[in-house]
Amino acid sequence: MPKQIKSSTLSPVEIEAIFAQLSQDRPNPKTELVYTNPFTLLCAVALSAQATDVGVNKATKALFEAADTPQKMLALGEEGVAEYVKTIGLWRNKAKNLIIMSRQLVDNFGSQVPQTREELVTLAGVGRKTANVVLNEVFGQPTIAVDTHIFRVANRTGMAIGKTPDEVEAGLEAVVPAKYKLGAWENWWGFLGQVTNRLAFENLRNHLLDTFCFNGKLRKIALL
Fold it and tell me: Nearest to residue 157, comparing CAs of 218, 66, 98?
């Protein structure tokens, strides 16, 4: 069954204005996860579930020096990987998934990270969001990764209304200008999402109010 796309309550002009401001504030957005190739980004994004990028980077610095390919990851073994990632939440399960994922890449994809969402989500520990981040960041595909921040902000602003991440993703794909879909999508919206959430920081609060208030429509959102 096709995903239902609900109407955006923002006009194309308002949506363009939001992203134009974000592009001015962050002209060269990049993911905060540190990686050296598609495989290490795939691992980093998978590890980042319920963890901070800072925490993931601390763990993967040494891990990726030891294993930056599926073969090297397999050589470490599950216990070896676990030693590197034990500071990250759910580390035991994530270490297990990295080994299974590496085996799948070697056996099914010639040790290469696949470049389609359908193939990526067959890998252990890889969901739609992780697949979309990888496709956008390293393969230049205009995919939209919907995390907690993006889901909340898209609904609060009315840019894309949905009860599930898939519904919000479909809505955003329909209304966001193509020129803004590439280039660390999750970083653009992660920034806006954190601005919305950190109301205790007056400067961020003022930034949101000053930048994204159209006829008072978004002022209410900022004060939630």
Answer: 218
